[in-house]
Amino acid sequence: MMYPPEYLVMIPGPTNVPYRVMQAMLAPIINHRSDDFRVLHRSLQEKLKHVFQTENDVVVLTSSGTGAVEASVVNLVRKGDKVLIPVNGEFSERLARMIELAGGEAIKVKAPYGSIPSYEQVKEAYENNKNIKALYVVYNETSTGTRITWLDRVKDMLARDDSYFVVDAVSNLGGDDLPVDRWGVDICVTASQKCLAAPPGVAPLSLSKRAVKFMKDNPPNTLYLNLPRYLKYYEENAETPFTPALSLYFALHEALTIIEEEGLDARIKRHKECAKVFYDSLAKMGFEHFAEPSCRSHTVIALKYPDGLEDKRFRSTLANEFKVLVAGGFGELKGKVWRIGCMGEVNGYHVKRTLSSITSTLEMLNAKVKATTTPSLN
Amino acid sequence: MMYPPEYLVMIPGPTNVPYRVMQAMLAPIINHRSDDFRVLHRSLQEKLKHVFQTENDVVVLTSSGTGAVEASVVNLVRKGDKVLIPVNGEFSERLARMIELAGGEAIKVKAPYGSIPSYEQVKEAYENNKNIKALYVVYNETSTGTRITWLDRVKDMLARDDSYFVVDAVSNLGGDDLPVDRWGVDICVTASQKCLAAPPGVAPLSLSKRAVKFMKDNPPNTLYLNLPRYLKYYEENAETPFTPALSLYFALHEALTIIEEEGLDARIKRHKECAKVFYDSLAKMGFEHFAEPSCRSHTVIALKYPDGLEDKRFRSTLANEFKVLVAGGFGELKGKVWRIGCMGEVNGYHVKRTLSSITSTLEMLNAKVKATTTPSLN
User: Fold this and answer.
1) Are A99 and A135 in contact (CB under 8 A)?
2) TM segments (chains A, B) (predicted)?
């Protein structure tokens, strides 16, 4: 089998992985029940707490982001539980479905794809319902390029029922504001291959003390996704209950080291700046943004296809002629929308090369989208 | 953080990973919804079918072996289902617990640790119970170093109720006999980091057509471990439903290529030969085997500690002075038993270096175990 070429990976995950992080996967194989592992585990815990901005424990699952999101559901939602959830895209739909599979009643606050439910709508739904067990929010809807803008305001609202606050930040933690403790997030879920810029396959999630207490008192019908079981092994021996993806642990550790070196605030600022250049430049080119201006994601840029620009032809030309990967639409947006991942390492070079390649691709395809010069970014 | 030293990894997984397989993790990051991935996926499918000796589809989960074992349970076992299961160690106990968590009734056929229930005992249990949904077997009990010797005989027995036949071969597929189709195995589960000699984090499992039909008709309450969902994505687009651990996919692909180059039969023979040398030589040294001779594993050698040889001191001396890793006991055997993984790359060099290092360690510790010369192996 031929190995694939080296692309500029501008899809919304996996994203470009820095050289140092790739090399870290070559760390020697160790016994996952040994001091060699304990050193790795403890250091990883500290670094994860930093990027989650939390004092809570952080469990690392060997799974995709969806596995960790499912863990946040099956450990917390029980039969008959009322769960409030804004729904405005494929991933929030999927999360609502998981809540229902777990026996919960998903009270959906819907908004058209490309927009978000307002805080007032969610507050009204909360006020109209009694005994809300939890608010689950997909912070950054990868399918539509939107972000929920009011997460800093829900803590007080949830005090009425001591409702749990769960945030799916799979596609923006590390690239967007998310002070877990300050915002009172009980469970925060992310994955390695998005803004953390590590390879896919491991997914960390932070757990508040009261969430852990509930889970211990009400254990789920799963071993592999049983989160208190992970914490028990962490506490007793600084080990995992099941064999972890060691090479990906080393890679994630190196990726988090890079984040510390850059500084989390600087990293988030860089994501926002790069996203702004993408939004401004692509609008100048004549592309129409899919997301409304007030709720545009800093990490996923979603664009509508103009008439005459065909999804597969556009993206395959970009990939084959320029080695630049962008993503198509997801679910019902397939063929109508394309997306850029603005994640992880993303910097001026990535932005310029992507925009330049898009410009040239449009010329090659004779697409009727306004041309522009490539903007500059420091 | 300092990286760990390069050990000879003689624990029952993870095991030594060949250089080529480690390097394969450095394959460029690709879009997991692209032709680059489809090429990888299809080639991986072919190679997995070869090593599973099956025409069945093989699902690859991003998880540890336990995750895949749990998938084999939650997709097949429903409330009230009667499931027959031999129990003779920690992993079969754990599997029985998973069956109960899924609402099944686990009919345990027990044997003392170090031995296995006989075929006759299992047959008797089958005959004494009606409507047996499935027989679940941990083929190779990693915790005790035993293997079930009669798997080739159950197919006919299970015909009475059309019972499903599920084999947990996490710690011996690729290093022991397991013709999935010939033996009529409906679900066969393994993991990357054992006899396949890839890094941990992905776990393949084969699914018979009738098992898939049941799962489609009776979908489980999970998305992440929903096996028919994987097959649907495989069939429709040669994609995975959730982001796969791409780097580990490339590594597994390279590991399976090595198996093809060696030949599966030769590989299994090599495992058996290496295991025999371990058993014979360690007995000559004065160690007592934990497993009974008739059911000793070809991939995990379990040994009792003689009086005066302390677990932690023995294994840390081997690790620190000779860079050889062996494992301790698991669960209730902790401190009483130690184990050697005879897996994957294992060859004469591994065997000799391990035995030589053990001999020297015993001398250093003045342990009263009969000394011997290091045996030769071609």
Assistant:
1) no
2) none
Identify the closest residue of chain B to A170 by CA–CA distance. Answer: B243
DSSP E strands in A116-174: the ranges are: 132-138, 140-141, 146-147, 164-168
- Both tokens of B31, joined, read 């879009």
What residues of A are in contact with residue B243 (Cβ under 8 Å)? 13-14, 64-66, 191, 193, 200
Contact B255, B192 (CB under 8 A): yes
| Tokens encoding B225 | 């471990």
- The structure tokens listed for B78 are 């429903």
3-state secondary structure of B165: strand
Burial A242-255 (b: 16+ CB within 10 A, else e): bbbbbbbbbbbbbb
* pLDDT band (50, 70, 90) for residue B370: low
Which pLDDT score is estimated for B330?
85
Edge-to-edge strands, sheet with A288-289:
A288-289, A300-304, A337-341
**Residue B56 — very low, low, confident or very high, per pLDDT cuts 50/70/90?**
very high
Q: Which of residues 2-61 of B touch A (CB under 8 A)?
A: 2-7, 9, 11, 13-17, 22-23, 25-34, 36, 39-40, 43
ipTM of the complex in this document: 0.96
Q: How far apart are the first and last CA of chain B?
A: 40
CB contact under 8 A, B222 and A101: yes
pLDDT tens column, A121-164: 999 999 999 999 999 999 999 999 999 999 999 999 999 999 99
The yes-or-no verdict on residue A373 having pLDDT over 90 is no
Domains of chain B are: 8-14+263-364 (3.90.1150.10), 20-262 (3.40.640.10)
- In the block, tokens 């597929």 appear at B173
Report how far Cα A285 is from the mean position of its chain's Cα atoms. Answer: 28
A102 touches chain B (CB under 8 A): yes
Per-residue model confidence as pLDDT tens digits over A10-25: 999 999 999 999 999 9
Element holding B141 (H helix, E strand): strand B140-141
Report DSSP state, residue B376: P
Residue B147: φ, ψ to 5°: -130, 145
Tell me the C-alpha distance between B295 and B292, whole Å. Answer: 6
Residues 118-177 of chain B with CB under 8 A from chain A are none
Partners of A62 on chain B (C-beta within 8 Å) are 62-64, 67, 200-201, 245
pLDDT above 90 as % of chain A: 96
